[in-house]
Design brief:
By secondary structure, the chain is mainly beta. The chain has one domain: Beta Barrel (Lipocalin), CATH 2.40.128.
């Protein structure tokens, strides 16, 4: 994480993030939670990680104006298996670039506009057929979208404000949304 001040009106911020998530879900076949003998009982093991990086450039050269450019990257890997089965993997890569401008018309009134482009690409996904004992690859997929936003905000005082905003933003499907694995 960094805030690098280039000069009085230009700043570059970077963020790096890594997260690992390990989990186990146990499904028992009795009320005492002691046996797993029936076909619907299982132990499911998850081993995920996410790597995120972002860079933001901010410029305040113009009076009462703050302009920024940003780029973000996210790589998410999901691995799972039930005990006795092979591990399956699904992964995604997400890229986003955007620009935003905020202009203060007065000390209490500001307008803001932004635009971004998001691209999501699958990086492979697998499913397991417990009858045939075969892991197969699922079709790769991708999606992209343009996102827009606009805002007018008036600060009544230091504790109260009134704002009107419009936006068109698309939520990207998660790995679970895409494959339900």
């Amino acid at each position: 994480m960094s805030n690098n001040k280039i000069n009085a009106t230009n700043v570059i911020k970077t963020r790096w993030y890594y997260n690992q998530f390990k989990n186990q879900i146990d499904s028992y076949d009795n009320a005492e939670y002691t046996t797993m003998n029936r076909p619907y009982a299982f132990k499911s093991i998850y081993d995920d990680y996410t790597l995120v990086t972002s860079i933001t450039y901010e410029n305040t050269d113009l009076k009462n104006n703050n302009f920024s450019l940003a780029g973000h990257y996210k790589h998410h890997v999901h691995r799972e298996h039930n005990v006795g089965e092979p591990t399956r993997r699904a992964a995604d890569q997400n890229y986003t670039i955007g620009a935003e401008d905020t202009y203060h018309l007065t000390s209490a009134l500001k307008v803001n506009a932004g635009v971004s482009y998001m691209d999501r690409q699958s990086d492979g996904a697998e499913q397991y057929n417990s009858t045939t004992k075969v892991i197969s690859s699922l079709p790769e997929n991708k999606s992209s979208s343009w996102n827009l936003q606009g805002l007018v905000q008036y600060d009544i005082d230091s504790n109260n404000l009134v704002s009107v905003s419009v936006e068109r933003k698309r939520r990207s499907a998660t790995i679970k949304d895409q494959y339900s694995i």
